[in-house]
Amino acid sequence: MTAPAPIVWFVVPEGFDDPDRVSGGNVYDRRVGAELSGLGWDVRTVAAGIPVVTATTNPFERIPDGALVLVDGLVAVEAPAALEGAAGRLRVVVLVHMAAGAFADADPLRIEGERRTLPLAGRVIVASEWLRDELEDRGLSTPERLVVATPGSDEAAPAAGTPTGGSILCVGVVAPHKGQDTLIDALAALGPDPSWTCTFAGSVEADHGFAARVAACADQAGLSARITWAGVLNALELDDAYSRADVLIAPSRTESYGIAVGDALRRGIPVIASRVGGIAESAHPEDAAILVPPQDPRALGEALRQWIEDPALRARMSAAARRAAPIRKRWSDTARTIDFTLRGMP
């Protein structure tokens, strides 16, 4: 008789699978859930409204006693009372995509939610070594409970790019922590050089005020004709955007890892990014990336100028990215780390 599949209850933010609500955390949850199913798990998804405090139901109330529960960190920090009430009867693993305290304008309630909930978890799975160190340094978990499962990337054909190297791509929700304003300032510093275009792929709905200010700054700098605000792209559209890109720019103010960085490098696309958070872990090999200080448009602009004006540099970085692409970590590797962790839970 075949043994029944092990069960894991996966508590995720409501709408995590909505194609119009793309985020690194949602991508991670979707991919890991699918991969765990492929590894033999019976994955039972529970969607929690965000913020949980305004939701009409407790996301843990229908999960049976003794069950193994994988909880998205956003749900955990939004629902500390609910998780505190359930932790005594459930085997809890929390999956943390980003530390709330890493944001300059961090919500005190989310920081308090981290403080209350992460110590309850038997294991805390994090998206990078930087994030592991961040949580350990803040006393939110202990080394033996912290597990690093960095995001993977899918196999993809090498990007065709352009002969001039001027096709720039920036992927991510248009919001302060992603630093698109820094990139606009850097592009403005390039002056009248007509050789580049830049596509911003990501939602402009998360912070309307910031998105409007960034677009206005681009317009005032005379850049609008060379900038495309593409909004949220579906999988095929995003793949097409990558295929036409010469370089990915990740000007983030904070970043736990950088899924877009990994996706670009998997396609042989070099990266110019902020040296912040876990980006240095995703931006490898080192000779396929240029890392600059965060919130420094002058440094970012100089890196862009060097990229555009030096074809030999572009060739070296592109070759390095293409050589390393086949050996980059896959989502199946990410899921195997989580699978091992879940099976080891007492």
From TrEMBL:
Entries under SUPFAM superfamilies matching the protein: UDP-Glycosyltransferase/glycogen phosphorylase
Report if keyword Transcription regulation is assigned: no
Single GO molecular function: glycosyltransferase activity
GO biological process terms on file: lipopolysaccharide biosynthetic process
- The Glycosyl transferase family domain covers which part of the protein? 168-323
Q: Which Pfam families match?
A: Glycos_transf_1
UniProt keywords, alphabetically: Transferase
Which InterPro entries does this entry report, sorted A to Z?
Glyco_trans_1
Q: What's this protein's name?
A: Glycosyltransferase family 4 protein
